[in-house]
Amino acid sequence: MRQQSDRKRQVFICYRRDDSAYAATAIHDKLKQELTDGEVFFDVQSIPPGKNFRTYLEDAVARCDVLLVIIGTGWLDARFEEGPNIAQRRLDDPDDFVRIEIASALERGIPVIPVLVGGAKMPPHSSLPPALGGLADLQAVEVRSGRDFVRHVEDLAGATRKVWAQIEDAVTSMPGKIFICYAFADASIANAIAQIVRAIGLVPLQDLTDLHAGDSWQARVQRLIEEADLFMLLWSSNMAHSRFAEAEWRHALSLGREHFIRPVYYEEPLPPPPRELAHIHFARMTGFHSFEVSSDESGPLPGQQPKRS
Asked: Please, is 95 exposed, middle or buried when counting C-beta atoms within 10 Å of its C-beta (0-12, 13-18, 19+)?
């Protein structure tokens, strides 16, 4: 499994200055005291001089782990007071920074926590532009001024820490290494899967690419399988004739790990699996029809076991 990250978690505070600048500043200052193991991003204090404001904010949203949306009583109906868009509601402007920040977080799946200040209520779906519709479905946290302020911000810090913990659990529970078991005739598809696995930050393990000169094929492959966090079985009609692949999935099965073997298939209908694997769900892959199935009859590379069948 993946190791816990040492990177500091980041909180991005999204607010409208005309609506809640004072409350946002107070929340920012108190959160910095509470979340000493994280970073609280606040546009006024954090943007370096000379930086493009919009680009910097979009990049900051992309890097953050939690977005706090400060909503005051004037947040929903704030309007332009001058210029070509005078009297237009700001949230209806695609270039409105608050809208861009929230939409960017929602699109990226970044956790968003609405923070209600000054007695504000959560805006309903019907009052929001489509890009922000998801905001109305989120549970809000209320922060009141006066003697309740400190307690409410502490509650907000607790909610933020809970989200951080959920993120960390999700990251550390992801498989770090995936062993790809396949028949040699399906090598082009297996290589395409390996590229996807690398692209999402995981490590693919393959017998023909992870064996080295002088390795004992059987012992080395078994070690790779045991080292993996997940065993992906690329099932196909070719697998029925591959004794090397069969040796691999039988070894994976012998380890007795729950949810370790994840069979996938690309042919339709599903080629009949052996009875030993009949209790495991086989997931259908799509988008691999354009890959040419290899029929290369060339010999092995130096240091490799003779070609799989």
From this structure: exposed
Percent of the chain with pLDDT over 90: 39
Give the number of other CB atoms < 10 A from CB of residue 129. Answer: 16
Q: Do 257 and 234 meet the contact criterion of CB atoms below 8 Å apart? A: no
What CATH number labels 177-284? 3.40.50.10140
Does the pTM of the predicted model rise above 0.70? no
User: In this structure, what token pair is assigned to residue 117?
Assistant: 């200040």
pLDDT in tens, 5-41: 456 788 999 999 999 999 999 999 999 998 887 888 8
Instruction: Give CA–CA dist 209/153, Å, rounded.
Output: 53
Query: Which of 51, 151, 53 is CA-nearest to residue 96?
Result: 53
46-104 pLDDT, tens digit each: 667 888 877 777 777 888 889 999 999 999 999 999 999 999 999 999 889 899 899 88
pLDDT (tens digit per residue) in 264-287 = 888 888 889 999 998 888 888 765
Q: Which long-range contacts (C-beta less than 8 Å, at least 24 apart) are formed by 245-250?
A: 245/181, 245/182, 245/183, 245/308, 247/218, 247/221, 248/179, 248/181, 248/207, 248/221, 249/181, 249/277, 250/276
Domain boundaries, the chain: 9-173, 177-284
In CATH, the number for domain 9-173 is: 3.40.50.10140
